[in-house]
Amino acid sequence: MASSQQGERKIPLERGTSEPVEAAAATSPGAWHASSSMEASSVVSSPMRWPSVPVITKRPGCQILERFNDSAMEDAYEDLKMKYRAKRERQLKLVTLDPHVPRSCMGNQNLLPVRDSSTKTILEGAKVVISLSSYVDGTLMARSSGFFINWDEESKVCTVLTSARLICSKYSSMDQWLGSDEYSPDATVYAHLLDKDETTVPAALLHYDRHFNIALFKVDVDSCAKIPSFSSEVTCGQDIFALGRDDYLNLTINHGRVQFKGPSMFERHYYMYTGFMTGQSGIGGPIINFNGQVLGMTNVLGMGFIPSSVILHCLDMWKKFGYIPRLHIGMKLSAMKFLDPIHVEKISRKCNIDSGLIVKEVSYGSNAEKRGVRAGDIIQSMN
């Protein structure tokens, strides 16, 4: 590397090169590959090199670091290190070299056989998945995901479906049947779009429903990707992906299977479950199958989601009536199919029934109670 002859000035070198610092600096342009605005640069950039301290070779295979014996050489060494760090910092601002992008489930070995096809499906579906944030008196209340379900080309208005938790200001109880959660429909809501500049635009509330925990907003969008179709066929054990956006607009991807279980007595009847946990920012994102069809929407912290059959029914009533009416049956029910087969077999032997809904609780004064329905009964059919 540097000469070891006595009395000769030692010049710090850049690691990986035999050129002195001054020579390397003279041939290395000051411009870098891309600017902070992510625009490509046509200026040639030198490779990244960490400066190395000169060494003295005492004998073959034995080298020692040369101590700086003048301030000019030490200043040159420190200056080169600062230039290296500054250039590296600029490079890491490029989206192509961003080291902070989170990893998804797509590295799972179980997904290798479908990695290419499912990645294509996910990237297509991600085009309509956005992030939303709500504010009350200028203070951030919640942030969640949402997705476009309709776009009017003439008015340039998109309809966004998300969870009503976006505007829920207080969660009072784990028992969702109490209906004690508090909502702020007048909250200021913004949609964070996916264009190059990550534009933020106001989102106007169209409707929200406390029971089904869904909300609809309208957003002005100049253009929109292909709106995904809904599939009402959701079966237990089916492979699914859940898409969402984190606080930095990074896409979140979770993979699992629809769980073979029903809601507890504290949860809504319409819930179905995934095999993974969903955080606050992912709530409101779509559940899709391997064909990209929407099977539901995550709408609670944890593993619960609302299936597409319920969503479609709610959307249909909202279009017809401008609101979502709901009949109260006055009962809490549990499906027999979610019981262990041993329990199902015992009920079948004792009652000659192998499918239906088990009545867990009957509301006092309800029509069901007046008609003689009691806890422990099995409902085989309705109407």
TrEMBL record:
Top-level taxonomy: Eukaryota, Viridiplantae, Streptophyta, Embryophyta, Tracheophyta
Pfam families per the UniProt record, alphabetical: Trypsin_2
A biological process from GO: proteolysis
Database matches in PANTHER family: OS09G0436400 PROTEIN (PTHR47389), OS09G0436700 PROTEIN (PTHR47389:SF5)
Protein name listed in UniProt: PDZ domain-containing protein
Basic and acidic residues compositional bias, start-end: 7-17
Record-stated family: Belongs to the peptidase S1C family.
GO molecular function, one term: serine-type endopeptidase activity
Database matches in SUPFAM superfamilies: PDZ domain-like (SSF50156), Trypsin-like serine proteases (SSF50494)
Region (Disordered): 1-33
